[in-house]
Amino acid sequence: MLELSDPARITAGIVLLTVVGIESGGFFLLKVFGGKLVTTDLQKSFYRAGHAHAGVLVILGLLCVLLTEATALTGFAHWLAATGVLCAAILMPAGFFFSAMGAGRTAPNRAVVLIPVGAVFLGAGVVMLAIGLLLG
């Protein structure tokens, strides 16, 4: 049985609580696609993408927290492997949602920069974890 360190256990517990927020995002999407909220095509696509990225990245992030416990990584490398994807799970959805906010928006605002920043965290986190797992 895998025994989690206290930081990994606490991180996983907190992340699991965020699923409630993702769930409420699903309720919001039901309003958007049910026609109860007036949105543009850009907003519909960005809201859908933000919700999907949040759900998928939280699941992948939890897996990364667990797998990092099986590595010998320390310091920043350990932090990046364990939480890089979780940072992306915040940044990328935030970029999708915040850049599409505003009545009648048809082009993303400057918050769209959060999407590639999140992508950097995603890539760096999974590469670091892969290195840690391959090196033992």
How many β-strand stretches?
0
Mean pLDDT: 95
Share of helical residues: over 70%
Number of helices: 4
Give a short account of the largest sheet: none
| Cα end-to-end separation | 18 Å
Secondary-structure element order, N to C: HHHH
Oligomer description:
single chain
Low-confidence stretches: none
Describe the protein.
The protein is mostly helical. It has one domain (6-135). It is 76% helix and 0% strand. The protein contains 4 helices and no strands.
Short descriptors:
136 residues, mainly alpha, 4 helices, transmembrane helix, membrane
Q: Can you summarize this structure?
A:
76% of the residues lie in helices and 0% in strands. The chain has helices at 6-33, 41-68, 75-100, 114-135.
Which SSEs are present, and which pair or pack?
Blueprint lengths: L5 H28 L7 H28 L6 H26 L13 H22 L1
Helix pairs in contact: 1-2, 2-3, 3-4
